[in-house]
Amino acid sequence: MKTKVAIIGAGPSGLLLGQLLTKAGIDNIILERQTPEYVLGRIRAGVLEQGMVDMLREAGVSLRMENEGLIHEGVELIYNGRRERIDLKQLSGGKTVMVYGQTEVTRDLMDARSQSGALTVYSASHVQLHELKGEKPFITFEQEGKHLRLDCDYIAGCDGFHGVSRQSIPSDILTHYERIYPFGWLGLLSDTPPVSDELIYAQHERGFVLCSQRSHTRSRYYLQVPLSDKVEDWSDDRFWQELKTRLPADVASRLATGPSIEKSIAPLRSYVVEPMQYGNLFLVGDAAHIVPPTGAKGLNLAASDVSYLFRILVKVYREGRTDLLPKYSELALRRIWKAERFSWFMTKLLHTFPDADNFDQRMQQSDFDYYTGSLAGRQTIAENYVGLPFESI
Ligand code: APR
Ligand code: PHB
Asked: Where residue 43 falls among pLDDT bands split at 50, 70, 90?
């Protein structure tokens, strides 16, 4: 097999890059380890920055999102019962976010890809990358017991945190930056109307909570839990009780409860690898960086990497601008580090840290008071939440 751009991974990064390339007439093939059903079964975040919404429009996959997605003009932050609305639209000069689940984005991208006729090889195992520094990189893999080879010009490593792409770069040229947080998020999805029209991020001495949503009839809630907790420890009843305890009384009294559709625990981690490229291999999305979910930046960062790599590849194929290729990592990382900073800041601001002393607690409270009490502080939160701009290339 032969293509121009070989994409490893059919998560949102790989599918979005594939769709944009196909629309631009640049051949690409996606290799994915799992089945499409498995990929669609993963429940992830659901807040899209305007930049990502614009990219989905450009990729021609925005129809369902425009009909079913919910535009949010604000979010609510709560600290120790004190409620502060951040007016995203007013504070950011008119920008908003779109509430539309990552699972739905993935489904729309998969549908568009099958309509376009571009090839995705699912259940591809033993993917290995070769000759990354040479003129003619290639990939070997297995599917249904057959040994196959894919020749290409460039490889986009869109295979997530546990993928093969980052591991194919010699370890001595990589620097890893990491912070592991001493708690996880227990998420619950239910067919109940959301407790509030807008998302609520709330600090409480028993731990952080997030009230999010997927639609007017489907809610997503999260509780900060110790890393030692197991999903089995949390019956639906216990979850709802704890959520009510951590919310202000008038919000708790409006909470509609019901059976969970999905419940899972995710650890919180900040991680970046530098550089994000090696020869003809370019890392995209979770393959190169992870953010804690406070601030909903994971999916949006994947989209900004795709935007940079796509725009560079278009110039390479249309104008022969191969000089732009070495700039990918530097360009992408500038925006990534800012989103890493914001996610880390929001995590520190709103969670209960097990080993925080009384000074740490006062600092956290002062951070909240300062940021929400000053116009500059509110603008800082708003401009980061709606998404910082993409650089031109
Ligand atoms: N070979 C082929 N495919 C692989 C391999 C491999 N060795 N390893 C992983 N994959 C596939 C995974 O099965 C998965 O479908 O790569 C895909 C990676 O998808 P994601 O983990 O979703 O990563 P990405 O597309 O970068 O999405 C960014 O945004 O909200 C965040 O973390 C969240 O998934 C999210 C991300
Ligand atoms: C979600 O809806 O799953 C969600 C929303 C906002 C976040 C994280 C997750 O910050």
From this structure: confident
Indicate which ligand has the atom closest to the C-alpha of 306.
1
DSSP state of 91: H
Distance CA 210, CA 332 (A): 29
Q: Which residue has the tokens 């380890």?
A: 33
Is 176 designated active site?
no
Q: How many CB atoms lie within 10 A of CB 324?
A: 17
Tell the CATH topology of 5-177+268-386: FAD/NAD(P)-binding domain (3.50.50)
Question: What is the DSSP track for 140-173?
Answer: EEEETTEEEEEE-SEEEE---TT-STGGGS-GGG
CA distance 275 to 279: 11
Q: Are 343 and 289 in contact (CB under 8 A)?
A: no
Q: Are 28 and 120 contacting, i.e. CB atoms less than 8 angstroms apart?
A: no
Of 314, 372, 364, the residue nearest 59 (C-alpha): 314
- Give the whole-angstrom CA distance, residue 327 versus residue 210: 37
DSSP annotation string for 104-140: HHHHHHHHHHHHHT--EE-S-EEEEEE-TTSSS-EEE
What are the structure tokens assigned to 83, written together? 């409620």
- Residue 383's SS3 state is helix
Pocket test for ligand 2, best of 210, 291, 297, 343 (most atoms within 8 A of CB): 210
How many Å lie between the centroid of ligand 1 and the Cα of residue 191? 27
State both tokens at 254: 């409006």
Quick check: helix, strand or coil at residue 192?
coil
Domain boundaries in the chain?
Answer: 5-177+268-386
Q: Model confidence at 122, in pLDDT bands (50, 70, 90)?
A: very high
Catalytic residue status for 293: yes
In whole angstroms, give the CA distance from residue 273 to residue 288: 5
Q: Which helix (H) or strand (E) holds 356?
A: none
Give the distance, in angstroms, between the CA of residue 183 and the centroid of all CA atoms in the same chain: 19
Instruction: Give catalytic status of residue 72 as yes or no.
Output: yes
pLDDT bucket at 42, cuts 50 / 70 / 90: confident
Interval between CA 227 and ligand 1 midpoint (Å): 23
pLDDT tens readout for residues 7-22: 999 999 999 999 999 9
